[in-house]
Fold this sequence. Notes:
- This protein is an alpha+beta fold.
- It has a single domain (about 1-155), classed as Aminopeptidase (3-Layer(aba) Sandwich).
- Helices cover about 35% and strands about 25% of the residues.
- It has five helices and five strands.
- A five-stranded mixed beta sheet has the order 1-2-3-4-5, sandwiched between helices.
- A hairpin with a 2-residue loop joins β2 and β3 (about 60-70).
- The chain is globular and about 50 Å long.
- The protein starts with a strand and ends with a helix.
- The mean pLDDT is about 95.
Amino acid sequence: xxxxxxxxxxxxxxxxxxxxxxxxxxxxxxxxxxxxxxxxxxxxxxxxxxxxxxxxxxxxxxxxxxxxxxxxxxxxxxxxxxxxxxxxxxxxxxxxxxxxxxxxxxxxxxxxxxxxxxxxxxxxxxxxxxxxxxxxxxxxxxxxxxxxxxxxxxxx
Length: 156
């Protein structure tokens, strides 16, 4: 298993795994990203999102898509893991743990104090994995979002 920073040639595989994640999370029609939008987001002159891939025998079998956030309480940056996904065939091979290890190394190199992410409340296999590597739920905090018509109304 090789884990490395994504390169532009990985974009089709990254998109394939994003679509597979959406299917797994029961939202098969939710993906609006395209190869072009991913390329622009990941590989422009000043990217705000980043990706690592897990590769096995030349095939990309896992992704970690992330960006930097900031903790005003610690005065230090952190990493927000937007998506972690390993193809069904590669689960149990260590790809997920290897992706997290790469993020831990990235966090260290950038002076980040934490890695945050969200998991769907029904996804117990993911929760079990996260607990096994030392993750823990942040009790008392609820994820909130504004988008779509509400975001448009706020801009008006």
